[in-house]
Fold:
Amino acid sequence: MFLNCHSYHSLRYGTLSIKELVAQALTLGITELVLTDINTVTGIYEFKKECEDKGIKPIPGVEIRKDGKLLYVAIARKFSGIGEINKVITDHNCDGKELCETAPELKDVFIVYPMRNIPSELKDNEFIGVRADELNFLIRPEYEKYISKMVVLHPITFSTDEEYELHKILRAIDHNTLLSKLTKTEVCRRSEYFISEQHIIKAFERYLQIIENTRNILEQSSFEFDFKKVKNKQYYTKSKESDVKLLRRLAFLGLKKRYGKDHTIAKERVEKELQVIDELNFCAHFLITWDIILYSSSMGFMHVGRGSGANSIVSYCLGITDICPLELDLYFERFLNLNRQVPPDFDIDWSWQHRDTILEYIFNKYGKDHVAFCGTNVEFKYKSIFREVGKVFGLPKEELDDLTSKSAERHDSNSVVKLVEKYGKLLEKFPNQRSMHACGILISEEPITHYTALEMPPKGFPIAQFDMNVAEDIKMEKLDILSQRGLGTIKDTVDLIKKTRGIDIDIWDTRISKDEQKASEYLAIGKTIGCFYIESPAMRGLLKRLKCDNYRILVAASSIIRPGVAQSGMMREYIFRHNNPDKFEYFHPIFEEHLKETYGIMVYQEDVLKIAQYFGGLSLADGDILRRAMSGKGRSIQKLQEVKANFFEKCIEKGHSEVLTTEAYRQIESFAGYSFCKAHSASYAVESYQSLYLKVYYPLEFMVSVINNQGGFYRTEVYIHEAKMSGGTIQAPCVNASEYQTTLRGTDIYLGLMLLEGLEKRVAHGIVENREKDGEYKSLEDFIRRIPVGIETIQILIFIGAFRFTGKPKNELLVEARLLLVNFKPEQRGLMLIEEPVQEFKLPQLKREPFEDAFDEIELIGFPVSCSPFDLLQTKYRGSIFVKDLLQYHKKQVKMLAYLIARKHVPTKKGTMYFGTWIDVNGDYFDTAHFPDSLKNYDFQGGGCYLLLGTVEVDFHFPTITIHKMAKMPMIPDPRYAYDKDKQYDIHRQIKEDVSMTFRKPYPQEHEIGLPRSKTL
Structure:
């Protein structure tokens, strides 16, 4: 009887999850259920599984609405009907086709119109839905004639009075209005909750035809769907046979290129992998990926194939990845094995500048009907909950800001806030809006609308209405097309070196990407700011602790820095064993033989496979099941138990004691969920070395490219500081020397016009284009003649020093600009400025204070260029100890003056703590730790310089200062407002800092790790 059920996938409307919806139906003994979310099929596959698990017949459909008005309910008679409905929604979302009051011709769909939208004629598959409270209308002649085409319409939207209030809150959020201003037409009826079918039959007892019609729809509708059949594109060519043949030919061509003619081990590995790929029907997946890489290479783009795909020698031979799996002992089974039912997962990075070109190629190559981005459900999060719910209750912006910036226990306890908290808690985990998966592309064999409706976000690429988990469930695996700024930095640096020095660099030369001597020296001391993946304070600290001076250690470092790995205690133990190789014993000779590279610790997922195979006697395929299950990727508890039992059985056969076997399995269990894919780390490490090599030998070109690619971990100011430390002379933007991006001329680095936050992008480009076309600007007057801008833009350019080539002070230029632009009108520009000579004015000499330029720079680009932040302090004191001396002060108290670069929030068992990153007056970086007790009285006060008092702790070559006290040092007042005391400290608040947050659990202490350092008998 329930033809019209909403879940919370009816965004900002329904209040029930799929599980709750089905569970309530089960409680009432309902045996058939139709899910009809508003304009979406997001939940239908979860709905099918959940219903069938509970013995309920699932039927999919969609409620079609336009501008909030219900037009009709579409119910799929069979699965092809869903495809028809998807096409209607997709045409509307992606092509702008209007949703009509009446449904189009749909072959395998039942249509149910509400009584307020009855069409002039009803087709055979069309009906009118009647609610119980509308039955009185049926005595009217205009409705009586339709009784034979009527069905029961009892929508489901919520379940309790509290959820009805939540529904109204969701509707207010959706309409961006106050709860008190919602109208009746904007919310559902008060009756839209489950009642027993007996109640419905009782209400319609005078109209048995309506009951019969409803039952007929339920009986004739079905949801047949094969979850096991792969939905991805089946063949790259026209058949599996030709795919196999092509893949084989390409693999052996690549084998010859990578390994030469007679590499027996490589050839055997290629043969083995090709057999598995063929058996699993994954040839097309490899060839599609190869084709994308081929196009990328033809365009001259850089890419990095990473993730478990780098475990495959076929991937390496095809050029998808550039990591040799033989060199690093990478297991193919980690990537692909006969137990795997889904296509392999390739993660491929491109520069953020080129990714859209790659996407356009994919969409054009395989057709818009077969390609879409995977969707994702953006849930209500802490801040959005309090802001959105607080807004509908009428809280002012100041209170909303307060609610979102404080934890719930610190909120005011007034009645409105209590209501916000009450309903906000109910909204946790609710989907708020649908969005695009960051990188997942779906390429289907059948038109993709057979399975999902599509939406068109502003980006311009259509997205599916389900997420990656649903895609995996229905056997439609995504292809990850990622982007990053690191590759853009490398490519731009290589191009800039060619331009400035005439040197061609082959950045893929392994002498550059692995173990180059000088780059390794930089690596060991953490001199890596700007370099991909190895520039964060945590990573630089790890590199110093390890004295990391080669590629293999960097691969390990790239793995153990991951939050989960560090959380498991592996990072601390690895650092200890790396620095103290004589202070531990291997757990067992097999651990020493196969994990010597990582000191007996299962750092990599491949290590888990090694121990499962060599210690436990499992096949690599079974070992991968073990790894996947423990990391949450395996969904069969029964399968895991079988593998565990097999592990213990095989260990007994090998003669291992029960104590030994139990401890080995405990270690596998502890680390399998945290360990990281070695191939992934290896790919990262190559790119890290590439960027580090460029930083070492071409620091100015490298840092300019980092700035133009909009940096990485830090703000632009830090990278400009690095460029200055590398010998660059930083020049403020200039209309005659600057481009839109930052440029390098000798050792002069001219900051780009793009860094001026108040300057329109259109104007910035126009300044450069006009200069290239008509030559340099001769004067301020010449600039104003040629560039149509107002006084606000001119002021920005004057204050940043963009007209310093005129030799005139800023004050004089500003007066001159106002005189030139007096009575200015755009339509009179030619007449006033070209035909009439400009009068020369004699202006009095206007005096400027020495640091006025610095405050102009802070205001316009966020940091000083013409001086150091230390120069702006009221004190001349610069600290008692400097970074270069810290290693000598272990366990000693020091006092330092430092400029704040970044701080990271980290939870501990005793409360919040921070890790700070700073530079001293010499420009050298150091790190601090701020524990909760210290922060109570000596908290951070925003960006700027601080006086720090703390104790130096040297941990494996890496000094950190534990701060006891600190105070922000006062800067000189803004000299531009010498006569306005109220404004003398306004600009100081614009001094920035980088703040990052982490909500992981505290890392375990050494005694909590539980990894033995002596042999177990």
Remarks:
- The chain has 39 helices and 22 strands.
- The chain has six domains: 18-220, 240-366, 371-470, 486-686, 714-861, 883-996.
- The two ends are 67 Å apart (CA to CA).
